[in-house]
Amino acid sequence: MKLLLDFFPIILFFGTFKAFGIMAATAVAIVATLGQIAWLWRKNGLVEPMQWVSLGVIVVFGGATLLTQDETFIKWKPTVLYWLMGSALWVGHYVFKRNFLRQLMGAQIELPPHAWLVLLHSWACFFAVMGCLNLWVANHFDTDTWVSFKLFGGLGLMLVFVVIQGMYMSRFVQEAPEDKP
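RESULT FIELD:
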């Protein structure tokens, strides 16, 4: 359910773009993200920091797109978000001496410190590469191709990366000892 909620604005953006174009899709993405945040706030009483950042980025870049009627701004939005996420991981590690991935996932999985460090750097690099790839697609292809890449290419690459990360983490996961009767 959480995964569907996370992708709700992207799916609405894609559908609206196919039916009505980039400006309508941008407006729908802003409203959908606002709705997503309101729903999370009402249901849980709190919203994760990255969701607030995502809201801010869509409002700023989507708003700039609508005000100027220039689709360039909305095309920058995924890159800005990817680079903010990757930068947050590196700033957390190098400035605050914290591994934000470990803080986020440490209660669910136990890994040795070096494995957490590999995960942190690999995710930060993945976000950096995804930001560059988004800019390349946005600047070298038409808007229809960029929107399709945003939904299918971006999510597909994310899925492949998550599977690879899962395989890496599985090397360190130990089975719980069985209870003896």
